[in-house]
Amino acid sequence: MINQITKGIKISVDTKYKGTNYRNNRLHHIFGYIITIENKSTETVKLTDRFWTIFDTLNNTEIVSGEGVVGQTPILKPNDMYKYGSGCFLESNIGAMKGFYTMINLETFEQFKVIIPTFQLTTQATLN
């Protein structure tokens, strides 16, 4: 599991290879990931936006950005935790993701970025 703390917000990432599937007549590797967001700070924050860079060993890069995560903009009070799962498709069996969440401190209205650490996406055969 990969972890990163930015301004008291801890991001943990766990990944899992889910197999292959055809998409647009091309074979893709499917990767799932679970993100846990923990508010270790003393202030209440709200996740407003996400930004991802997804890349693989075939030099394919995809940028994903938008409001919230999985259709939600969670509010986290001190010591709250929010967990969600999502996934991506890669043409290569090796890749990585990185990014950030934009959050707002609901007490000071300060916006800030929380780093999502780079995490690897690899098939089991690659690891052996």
From TrEMBL:
Identify the Pfam families for this entry.
Answer: DUF525 (PF04379)
Specify the ApaG domain's residue ranges.
3-128
The UniProt entry, under SUPFAM superfamilies, shows: ApaG-like
| Any single GO BP term | error-free translesion synthesis
Q: Which InterPro entries match?
A: ApaG_domain, ApaG_sf
At the top level of its lineage, which domain of life is listed?
Bacteria
What name has this protein been given in UniProt? Co2+/Mg2+ efflux protein ApaG
Organism of this sequence = Polaribacter atrinae
